[in-house]
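Form P-L/3: holo structure prediction, ligand NAP.
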Amino acid sequence: MKALITGANKGIGFAIAEALGKSGVEILVGARSESRGQDAVRKLSTKGITASFVKIDLDNFDTIHNATEEIDQLDLLINNAGIPDSYKADRPALDQKKTTFDYTTDDLRETMEVNFFGTHEMIRSFLPKLAENGKIVNITVPIQPNNFWHPLAYQTSKAAQNVMAMTYALEFKNTGSSKQIFGVMPGGVATELNGHTVGALDGFIKSAEEAGELIAKLVLDTENHNGQMIQFDGKIVTDYEVQIHG
Ligand SMILES: NC(=O)c1ccc[n+]([C@@H]2O[C@H](COP(=O)([O-])OP(=O)(O)OC[C@H]3O[C@@H](n4cnc5c(N)ncnc54)[C@H](OP(=O)(O)O)[C@@H]3O)[C@@H](O)[C@H]2O)c1
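OUTPUT (holo model):
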């Protein structure tokens, strides 16, 4: 079994690579930086995992198309890469102090470029390479704003990504395809994306390794998850009321 994981050089992406690799899956480490990607490949290899580097920058479609040409067939496409705010933002981590009123339209557009358009281009481009029973898995978040956490650009880009995934799922079902696409929501995970926040809610934030294990388990089970948005505890988020299981 072969999996391509975007943003696999660190954080949750690397942890998914490790967890899937330990289960015998061959890992294609998608990363925008060759040196960071090759470092991850080395780390995985020392753990006995078969891994190789594939350059993928969601903000540069040429890299996506080149990668598609290099790869014959995929069993799993894990769309993990994502950014917390505009790729032009100064801070690499989510700015928890930025309020809804501080966001510009450009912030939203530039976040969409990576989280939504980049992810869509991955799906569109790799779909013909996906095995008959292949799975596409988006690593995502719930869309309902709450008082603890509601970063405008990030959350709206993920909402668009979630709806896009469910629309593909509907099309898989309607065309009798045995391919699947679904979202996994790992909950709060301490990574660079949130400045390794070990937040106000004690015990709520998990490590990347814990998240990677949870995600790998869902990805490798034998259930049909097409069209589902699944929480870290296995609960299916029903707020989306996707009409494909009725
Ligand atoms: N952390 C959480 O609490 C949490 C919760 C739910 C969902 N998620 C989702 O999980 C995913 C991974 O996040 P994380 O927390 O592991 O964050 P992270 O540690 O910041 O890792 C983000 C990954 O995405 C890559 N990336 C960023 N821009 C990219 C681009 N233009 N093209 C390709 N790769 C790019 C980064 O590469 P570089 O190293 O080159 O920057 C890095 O590998 C994201 O989609 C995030 O929304 C996170």
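COMMENT: Helices lie at 11-22, 34-46, 61-70, 105-126, 152-174, 208-220.
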